[in-house]
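Re: [help] complex structure
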Amino acid sequence: MPVDLTPSQALGLWHEVTSQQVQQDGRDLTLRQLAILLEIYLVPPPHTVRGLASKLGVTKPVITRALDTMGDLGLVTRMRDDRDRRNVIIKRTVDGALYLERLGDLIIARGRAQTA
Amino acid sequence: MPVDLTPSQALGLWHEVTSQQVQQDGRDLTLRQLAILLEIYLVPPPHTVRGLASKLGVTKPVITRALDTMGDLGLVTRMRDDRDRRNVIIKRTVDGALYLERLGDLIIARGRAQTA
DNA sequence: GGCAAACGATACGGTAGCGTAACGAAACGC
DNA sequence: GCGTTTCGTTACGCTACCGTATCGTTTGCC
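Output below.
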């Protein structure tokens, strides 16, 4: 696994991972969409549209659109908040967890190859 | 610096970097564009449209479009190959090198914060 | 010279992203 | 109750990407 990465090695790792991801995954998420997805899965819930927007410094429609797209892909789901029905709670899905699990494994694998 | 990354930490690193990149950089390159840019800067030249297309498993118009966009952003340049004027040689630029240098530093900085 | 192959760019119709602005629904304040 | 604020979503016009197919140019081959 990667030990003491230099900036050059870090870019090499990014290169390996993005390249492989482009080749093998037909979904081709935007950088923004990926950031949103990671935020949802790595930060403790609950997640709302407004919260994600302010956290990432983008407008609300950007979040709505990203959730539409990733919802169609099965990576996330949305539910109304029953305690405050103005809010929408973003939920994780099994497919989304699998997607990120595969990404994590890819990074490790490439990182290992990188420093090997 | 990152030592012995677990898959979870790897995703955390990706999260930090994509998130910060989304927030601070207005350019918002596609994952494909980023992969192309990294290929150009990290793999020894010469680079051609056809070569990049086959290397990344995409069609030639994808490369042409990406080079158009990144050319407008000043990240790459193109020149005709004088020895075989059918070819186009993709050249690096100072701005492109700076862009990736900043990305590399960002990864290191976030990786350090990640494991700190 | 002339035909086929290779290269990168372009055209086309379609899809998905963007920012700004406005919208309906729900909660809050008085 | 009723205006105001706060949600998330939708509408609009625009830009940029996609894949497939085709184009013009250049080279290679005979």
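Residues 30, 32, 59, 61-62, 65-66, 69, 84-87 of chain B lie near DNA strand D (CB under 10 Å from a C1').
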